[in-house]
Design goal:
By secondary structure, the chain is an alpha/beta fold. Helix content is 36%, strand content 13%. It has a single domain (59-413), classed as TIM Barrel, CATH 3.20.20. Helix 4 packs parallel to helix 5. The relative contact order is 0.18.
Length: 415
């Protein structure tokens, strides 16, 4: 059976909208002095040298083609993205107290911790009471937020993110809820904008939105998407969603979508719209995050060293754009398994990753943290030192038990 891996933080290899060649690893979605090496993030052989655009076009032709029928909102984003309101207002800063475990002191100043929203259930396996109890306990423990992933096609029994987030919103009072990432390239931006706006209203402004292109290894034909234009489609879709969230009447004349005097109500509860996190790993994707987004979310499949290099690219891009780093949060998902038997933890998380990604991928297995609580403390401290201000601990089995261990035995040691 064919398996299409779930969308994490929008993995994307180099090419497309920048002449820089960056080799990114297979799959995907404070400053540190790190030397960025061109080969620091190896790509799968199938990803290397596969341009977004068809071969045989010169750079000038690519630029001309990319500029055809771009809507005014897209052009405005390109010219004035840095003038967009940053995550500075109270409704969008995403500043919450760091999690405190029972009998633990504060962690790193400003550090926040999140957990995964349970999504993997076989047919008929979902237990509403257990799902609600998981979130009741998560709020008691003080976790900042909870996040889904997106996987539309694949053998893994994964619930859809928006619907699962909606159920989670009804089970919670305080926690923020998000998805990293929606592969928005494969979505209708009108539908996605409406769903996000609705959920933000239902949750009274507790929604976070992660987006990513999804990279080249997507089943584009299943969604009617031209693989030669997936980055352009992604960028235009973001512009259209922002317009629908902020403009009373939207007139939009784009390459992919056209609207005339179209209203969409209600707007999101958060103004101007929920925080927009970008996934990605290549330098063009990271710079795009700074141009168009409100934060960067590193992939669970990225090793800490690669994440540190990505953070440095983001920090450099922020400085070049004149954007304050403190208004552009940085987060990272970490796949984690805590067990007093380190070997058992490693065996179980490797098996779970194989189910998630559809095959054994040693680079992704190596990026996951598995071992004793002390082992995981050491690894999370390295993630924090690399620049993560929010760490999303993603357990792939025994999620309730792993959440308890994370809060009691690991988080107090981070910092």
């Amino acid at each position: 059976m064919s398996h299409y891996p779930s969308a994490e933080e929008g993995h994307e290899t180099g090419g497309g909208d920048d002449a820089v060649r960056v080799l990114a690893q297979f799959r995907d979605l404070g400053p540190v002095d790190v030397l960025v090496k061109p080969d620091a993030d190896p790509a799968a052989a199938a990803d290397v040298g596969r341009p977004e655009e068809p071969g045989g076009l010169g750079r000038g032709q690519l630029l001309l083609r990319a500029r055809r029928r771009r809507a005014p909102q897209v052009r405005e984003l390109e010219r004035q993205a840095d003038r967009a309101e940053p995550l500075g207002e109270a409704a969008r800063r995403i500043v919450h107290p760091a999690i405190l475990s029972p009998a633990a002191g504060a962690t790193l100043p400003g550090m926040k911790f999140a957990i995964a929203i349970p999504q993997f259930y076989a047919d008929g396996e979902f237990d509403p009471a257990a799902f609600g109890a998981y979130f009741a306990r998560a709020e008691e423990l003080g976790f900042d937020s909870a996040w889904t992933q997106e996987g539309m096609l694949g053998a893994a029994p994964q619930l859809a993110p928006i619907e699962t987030m909606t159920y989670a919103a009804a089970c919670t009072q305080r926690m923020r809820l998000g998805c990293v990432v929606f592969v928005s390239t494969l979505h209708s931006p009108v539908h996605l904008a409406k769903s996000v706006s609705t959920l933000d209203q239902l949750s009274r402004g507790r929604i976070e939105v992660g987006v990513g292109t999804g990279g080249r290894n997507r089943p584009f034909a299943a969604f009617g998407v031209d693989p030669a234009r997936y980055v352009a489609r992604f960028t235009e879709g973001i512009a259209l969603m922002k317009a629908l969230w902020t403009e009373p009447l939207v007139t939009f004349d784009g390459e992919f979508w056209q609207l005339k005097d179209a209203p969409m109500e209600p707007k999101p509860f958060q103004k101007p719209y929920p925080p927009l996190w970008f996934g990605g790993s290549s330098e063009p994707a990271l710079r795009r995050a700074v141009r168009l987004g409100d934060g960067f979310f590193g992939a669970g499949s990225a090793p800490t060293a690669a994440f540190a290099e990505q953070v440095q690219i983001v920090r450099d891009a922020l400085a070049e754009a004149g954007r304050p780093a403190e208004d552009f949060p940085i987060a990272k998902r970490v796949y984690i398994a805590i067990d007093e038997d380190a070997g058992r933890a490693r065996t179980r998380i490797n098996a779970a990753l194989e189910g998630l990604y559809g095959r054994r991928v040693p680079a992704i297995e190596a990026a996951a943290f598995a071992g004793t609580a002390a082992d995981c403390v050491r690894e999370l401290n390295l993630v924090a030192a690399a620049g993560a201000e929010l760490i999303l601990g993603t357990a792939l089995f025994d999620q309730r038990e792993q959440m308890e261990r994370l809060a009691a035995d690991v988080i107090p040691g981070v910092g």
